[in-house]
Known about the structure:
Helix content: 40-55%
CATH class: Alpha Beta
Number of helices: 10
Number of strands: 8
Distance between the termini: 18 Å
Mean pLDDT: 93
Radius of gyration: 19 Å
Low-confidence stretches: none
Bound molecules: NADP nicotinamide-adenine-dinucleotide phosphate, 2-acetamido-2-deoxy-beta-D-glucopyranose
CATH architecture: 3-Layer(aba) Sandwich
Amino acid sequence: MLTKVSQIDFFWDLLLGFLNLAIGRLLPRLHVPKTDLTKKVAIITGGNSGIGFQIALEFARRGATVHLACRNASKADNAVSEITNQIPESHGRVEAHTLDTSSLASVRAFAEEWKGDIDILMHNAGVASVPEGQSLFTPDGFPLLYATNFLGPFLLTYLLEKYLAPGARIISTTSTGQYAGDISARFSLNSVTNHIEPGFHTSRKLNKKVPADADVYNNTKLMQVAFTRLLQQHFDHENGLKNQRLVHCFTPGFTSTPMVDKFNIRSFRLDPIWWILQSTVIFATDPRQGAATGVWLATTKDGGGNGGGYWDRMTRRVSKIDVTDPHIVQRLWVRWEADAGIEWR
Length: 345
Ligand SMILES: NC(=O)c1ccc[n+]([C@@H]2O[C@H](COP(=O)([O-])OP(=O)(O)OC[C@H]3O[C@@H](n4cnc5c(N)ncnc54)[C@H](OP(=O)(O)O)[C@@H]3O)[C@@H](O)[C@H]2O)c1
Ligand SMILES: *[C@@H]1O[C@H](CO)[C@@H](O)[C@H](O)[C@H]1NC(C)=O
Ligand SMILES: *[C@@H]1O[C@H](CO)[C@@H](O)[C@H](O)[C@H]1NC(C)=O
């Protein structure tokens, strides 16, 4: 099992995490060594925009075959053209696919179409706000942010598991907001639809009827960190060998991407954090820097050592999951299975 981390280590890394958010732009630029990815196959969800686009570009530059899995086909096609324009030698090995991670049916359809080995699976697609006028819940009955950022990617990993190459990397773009996530010891183990459940979808302290988007977002980002840990344990257990498939997650820091323009004004009133971020975006780093830690985790030779980690600026950090009761973390898997309608042990 894990070595217990001290509260001091946790608070120190939390402090550094928020400092990196605030002054990331002023810190030395991160440089990712140019590893060769020839013959490697990568899938990047949300690869048409922001951090995901930069990751796709870096993979294409290194010689990989790159599959952009995007909800909007025309945006995906545009991204393919832009990558092949910037990197002419990548022509013919960058492909667009349709995938809406918020829909379990779309995830299943994507997986059914898929053929061939996967060396890198980047769970990057994400939303921070429910768009104006849109329901808080998806047609499947799950909170939109949870379905998009977590549940769809969870099901996708399950369905694609058989295609993951022995040394595959599974990397999630999470957020420093994971430190503010909070999972209760008593959330339901059964799937609950059309309901936002405090302690699971939102922080357990929540007592408002409609939560702030930031609160739901923070918990989806914490779940990605928990999934990283649990999926690595799953692979280690299955293979009986450590460090074959490697699972990691990272925070890009505060990055200037189209996401910031997609914040919904409704949520500003409930939690001003999105308003603060939107009005301070001049302090954010550029998408290339935001992507660097993810590119590094996916391409570096030793893959960041033992899997299951949370990374900030190419450094492994203590996450909120490290100070969460392991029994609570284990229970999450049971609930995710119930929500995704699968059994995955
Ligand atoms: N920017 C930051 O400061 C920051 C900080 C911490 C974490 N992150 C994380 O970084 C990741 C990338 O965000 P970004 O900043 O690069 O924002 P972005 O430019 O808005 O990119 C998000 C990507 O996800 C896609 N997406 C959204 N919903 C989707 C769905 N249902 N199905 C498939 N794709 C979907 C978007 O598609 P469309 O283009 O169609 O909208 C877009 O391609 C997210 O997971 C985010 O939570 C960002
Ligand atoms: C897809 O993106 C284009 C912009 O490239 C936009 O005009 C269109 O409305 C989007 N489609 C959907 C279904 O959101
Ligand atoms: C979500 O996390 C951010 C830090 O990234 C924090 O400032 C915000 O208050 C959190 N929101 C809630 C409602 O907990």
